[in-house]
Predict the 3D structure of the following.
Amino acid sequence: MSTKEALNGESRDGYVKIDRYNDEKIEAVAAHYKDILSQLGEDPEREGLVKTPERVAKALQYLTHGYDIKPDEILKSAMFKEDYSQMVVVKDIEVYSMCEHHMLPFFGKAHIAYIPNGHIVGLSKIPRVVDAFSRRLQVQERLTNEIRDCIQNTLSPMGVAVVMECKHLCMSMRGVQKQNSVTTTSAFTGTFLSNDKTRAEFLRLITASLD
Ligand SMILES: Nc1nc2c(ncn2[C@@H]2O[C@H](COP(=O)(O)OP(=O)(O)OP(=O)(O)O)[C@@H](O)[C@H]2O)c(=O)[nH]1
Ligand SMILES: [Zn+2]
């Protein structure tokens, strides 16, 4: 069974729920984690840990399921011709990703806007695109750009704006150990780049969630 098939379930809140896994992959990853537990000085046979390698393998499969999703097809599946040319903003989209350097979580919010150019897109598809790119090993900058490029290239709007604000556990629970730092990234195209007023309007609309 492919990982994609393994990810067929969808819960009501729109998040992908795994109810079948790629057993081959789970077994291979779990075997490595059993070894890792030993290397860390643990006893992988003790009661609490017996199933841990399999649990971790399943968790990792979930946390990286974005590799099997085609974000542009998500958008294409719900594009509608519509004569609406004002800014559409979807803000406060929860983001959970993992930094590719330490494989530790970073999480926060994405705020996304586009200005239609003949087509609008089903609103839920925008958070789905965010999930498709964030459920991979990432850096926040690339994640921001990938979301922007996907919406721009698929929907061809007058412009796209993406702002992300995230906390990185690799900066708080280890390393430099800064508990409250938040990283903000942004990416714009079209009118959001060329027109200061449009960009300012977007930033004003999302400001309430930036403090
Ligand atoms: N630009 C960027 N850097 C990130 C992101 N996530 C983690 N990092 C950084 O990746 C860098 C990796 O640096 P290295 O010096 O190779 O790793 P390290 O020795 O573990 O670094 P420290 O975290 O400073 O202890 C660190 O500075 C992290 O803060 C991200 O999304 N974007
Ligand atoms: Zn990191």
Observations:
- The first helix runs from residue 3 to 6.
- The CA atoms of residues 23 and 185 lie 37 Å apart.
- The longest strand covers residues 88-99.
- Residues 77-207 form a domain with the GTP Cyclohydrolase I, domain 2 fold (CATH 3.30.1130.10).
